[in-house]
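Researcher: Re-running this chain for the archive, since the previous output was lost when a drive failed. Same request as before.
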Amino acid sequence: MMNAFFERSLDCPLSILFAKRTSANHVSTTNVFDLIAVISEVAEISPRIPELGVVASQFDVRLTMRELESAPLPQIRKLWLDTGFECSSDRTPISILNVNPLSVRVLHARHVPIMWQPFEGLVRLELSAGAGTSLPSLLFTLKSSPHLEALLLSLPSNRDNAVSRFDGLILLKRLKELLLSVDDADGAAFAILDHISFPSAVDIEFRFARPVPRSLCDRNDSLRQIALIVQRAWITVEPPVWVVLETDDPRISLEYPGTLWRPAWLPYGFDYSTRLCEGLIAVPLPSLVQLSIRIEHWEEHAADAIDIMQFNALFSAVPSITELNLDVHPKYIHSFTSALSTPDLNDGVSGGAGAGNGAEGPLRCPKLKHWALVWFAEEPSVDDFWRIERCCAARAEAGISVEHLCTSVVPELVLASLEKSVGLVSVLGEDL
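Model: Regenerated structure tokens:
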């Protein structure tokens, strides 16, 4: 039947997809021979194949690639190898067939160790690799791929995979998209950043599961230059697990763990506290002007995860902001007002604007002028509004008054006192 179809298609290009799920523990002789028979028929029309995909188990992917190894694929433009979430202890690289390195435009390999070649025509590389990833080999391919526009990598930590024999930077001058996802945010996991350079218009996305040991900008000057011009950023807590830091122009996205409670499926000893500032540690934004924070979820014990220490660290990391937008549950008012009205003891500078009277250090966010507060689930109590008033009064006393506070309707008694320390108090949705 397949041969008849191939004959009817004449010389038309054919996209081939092998989709099969057979675990190596459930392989029968019949299954193997059936697969080999299909592969042999495909091999006969291999010169006509522009796209080839193998979505199967580790066993089937290796078998398919081995049987096709000698089949010529001069027109192949897209190669897709995917074993899903099935990893293998076999680190032997798979040969990338008899292809023309100039013709391959898209290469996707998920948990499939491959034998790298100089794919000079490569435009998009998607690699989700297991422990057998060879960083030197990957860098060799990148150096040979001057037309690369998208680089999407999901890599293990590779602590034993140092690159000491690779000199110079690889200039990816056409790169438009960079995604780097690592299992463990140690230095070796981000080692590829030490060896690549890219334009300022690249969309950047980082995902990591553990705190980053130091700023990623320290190891990549292209990233540092991009971060230097960012002026607006958003932090969103997405329960139960992720915190997302995003910027828009240029576009940077960082995703990292941070849950408001401990899910039962998290392993014992997992650090599940919400790390609001982790993204700003990984990629500092020294020119940030506007910061928006959205924490919609609330649990009775959530304050144990996002407490004053979390807000202290977050606001200490953004001294340049002039505008702060908070969309949070009123239960967080005590934490964020305390963080904005107490000295930053880690600053190491006293005196001057923001130092206050006798304070050990300046207040956090000394340039803050515009402050908007939106409430999730319920309105603040009168006591909550008094906390906001005391925060604004402390900042006024320190010489760094808030010029404009925008929030919901403030109780009249609180408003009368608040207007003594804030230039303008307005209600959300009302015209000024």
